[in-house]
Design goal:
Residues 157-352 form the VWFA domain. The chain is of the alpha/beta class. The chain has helices at residues 16-28, 170-186, 209-213, 218-222, 234-244, 274-283, 299-304, 306-309, 322-327; strands at residues 51-55, 62-71, 77-84, 89-92, 109-113, 116-128, 131-141, 156-163, 192-199, 203-207, 257-264, 286-293, 315-316, 333-334, 343-344. The protein folds into two domains: 51-141, no CATH class; 156-344, von Willebrand factor, type A domain (Rossmann fold). Helices cover 22% and strands 28% of the residues.
Length: 352
């Protein structure tokens, strides 16, 4: 579009016709339309043409046209068509709709980018008590206008094993609890269960998978947690988690991805070797991660225990920066595949 600066009345000395001509000329530069041989698409569908988007490769480019008012089966409104400029014909794109997508006005909104097409129907009504809410559905189609399969949802069981020994100061211990709460909140709405155990030279199970599943208030699970003190028996704590938490009696599910997150300063006082307990964890299919704690974090200790870390380490410093770890791409991310390790900590040192 071309915009032209108009002269003031004192500057312009031409006639009114000349002024009008200038205006029409400027407007004509804004766009151009093909009027000699236009291609017209017609379809006996209510609302046909309410939304239009170009889609397809250079050799097979066409138009996708929405008809959001067209009725179909019972309580079904909205259809979408692929129109071919060569033939001038349109063909309906079949989209599988969820059972509750009643009168959704499919095709009211369309968007295309590269080889993907997004088709939306925003007028699904949902009754909640005496109130009625409007929600919608969107469907992602590939370049062949086939619906992309949704990623399968794998259940995930995650145990937090937190270091409550005397080498952890009070403020760091509270940061651990905050971190645990933030991670749990990030997984809200997913098929993920959590459990928490604290260790020092003694061990305390704060909640298992069953208790987590029956509790709606996360803070109520963490607020009673108090630091144990004493020495650091990390290896024995891992063994205890494997044998006493990742079991069906505690709510651990068959077929679920099993994740163990150890939050510690890296110290170790027990005589049990990591190699012994890690072998048990691997046989149980448990994926392990470690997060180091603040300035007291002993990097040399964690470097010597690569089997414990799962080759991933982080340092937990500031409460206000916990959110950084949870939101930055590549830090902690939920995945749908066990082979993607379900919980990913980037393999590099990071201070948060």
């Amino acid at each position: 579009m071309i915009c032209k600066k108009w002269p003031s009345r004192s500057q312009y000395k031409g006639s009114f016709k000349e002024l009008l001509g200038e205006g029409l000329l400027a407007l004509s530069r804004a766009f151009s339309m093909e009027v000699e041989g236009p291609i017209t698409f017609q379809e006996a569908a209510a609302g046909f043409g309410k939304s239009v988007v170009q889609f397809g490769s250079a050799s097979a480019r066409g138009l996708v046209v929405g008809a959001p008012l067209q009725t179909g089966n019972v309580n079904e409104t909205g259809k979408v068509y692929k129109c071919n400029p060569g033939s001038g014909r349109c063909q309906e794109i079949l989209i599988q709709r969820p059972p509750d997508a009643v009168n959704m006005s499919l095709g009211l909104s369309l968007a295309a980018r590269d080889s993907e097409l997004l088709v939306c129907g925003p007028t699904v009504h949902q009754a909640c008590g005496q109130n009625m809410y409007v929600k919608g559905y969107c469907f992602l189609l590939d370049q062949n206008l086939q619906q992309l399969r949704q990623c399968p949802k794998h259940p995930t069981d995650i145990v937090f094993l937190i270091d409550g020994s005397g080498s952890i100061d009070f403020y760091d211990f509270e940061r651990m609890k905050t971190f645990v709460i933030e991670v749990i909140r990030r997984f809200h709405g997913t098929d993920t269960l959590f459990a928490l155990m604290q260790f020092s030279s003694t061990f305390q199970e704060h909640f298992d998978f069953n208790k987590f599943k029956s509790t709606h208030n996360i803070n109520s699970l963490l607020s009673p947690v108090r630091q144990l003190g004493q020495y650091t028996y990390t290896a024995r704590a891992i063994q205890k988690v494997v044998k006493e938490l990742f079991i069906s009696q505690k709510g651990s599910r068959n077929g679920a991805a099993r994740i163990l997150i150890v939050i510690t300063d890296g110290m170790k006082n027990d005589d049990l070797k990591y190699s012994d307990v890690i072998a048990e964890a691997e046989r149980a299919g448990i994926i392990r991660y470690a997060i180091g704690v603040r300035s007291i974090y002993h990097n040399a200790h964690l470097q010597n225990h690569r089997d414990l870390l799962g080759h991933c380490k982080y340092q937990l410093q500031h409460t206000q920066r916990v959110n950084f770890l949870l939101t930055r791409p590549g830090q902690i991310q939920q995945h749908n595949s066990i082979h993607d390790k379900t919980l990913t900590l980037r393999e590099r040192y990071s201070t948060i």
